[in-house]
Design a protein that fits this description.
Blueprint (H helix, E strand, L loop, with lengths): L6 E3 L5 E3 L7 H11 L7 E9 L2 E10 L11 E7 L2 H19 L1 H4 L15 H8 L9 H75 L17 H14 L10 H15 L1
Antiparallel strand pairs: 1-2, 2-3, 3-4, 4-5
Length: 271
Amino acid sequence: MAAPSNIFWDHAGHLHTNALHWEGFPHLLWESLSLFFYTEPPQYDGVEYREEGVPRCRVKMTIPQHPFRSQWQPIEVDVVGYRLVDTIETAALEATHIFCNQHPMKVAGHPIGLFPAIDSSDPEWNFRIAHYGHMLGDSAKETLRSIIRFMNVQHHYQILLCRGMGQLTGIAQGHYRNADRQVTQIVELQALEQIHDLILEVDDTHAHIDELQQQPVPPTVPVAPEGEEEDPEEIEGVSDLDSEHGNPEPNPRPDHSSSSSQSSVGDLDDF
């Protein structure tokens, strides 16, 4: 049963869709569910957000209650990824595994019964792939077409995962570069702080030296103790000086008597 595709955003920023507008696991799941007379396709509720700088996405999907098989309860899936498109694919893939595990006998007669199991040793899955001969008759064409479509969808899903991993790698490298740049800046700031502290210490030392140089120095006046005798060496120095130059001779007085007698003799000669 074909169902129209729908997609819209609510006021909380959640995406609501049945994801039938592209060829993927949601489309394959709905075609298989319609074979079991489901009337409404599963709905997907997705929201994107960032967690510690990394883009994340959460998708919740529900396979509704079967319209007339009361034992077929709703199947709810809640997965977390990195982008809406690949997280929706992951949710549909997980829901397909759960549906096949809950109804192994019902899906054994349809191509969805050949859907790969999470555990290759699962006995129910091994039973289904061991008894697929009935699908080679009238259902051979449909079986082959389903397998080809599954392979194509699986390839597309792997491409989406590779793109997502590439984006995550780029984000991780960006965070590493930012962290390395911040570490370098921290080291440089620490070096600048140490230099600043050294400059402050040098300035304080210079200021202290200037303060000491500006203070007047009082003169030193020696004070001789009372009752100290003169140094005998100084007295000896004076006596030695006197003896070295000799005793001064007395200034001779002029002899007035001789000069008078000479002048008298001269006067006599004139006569």
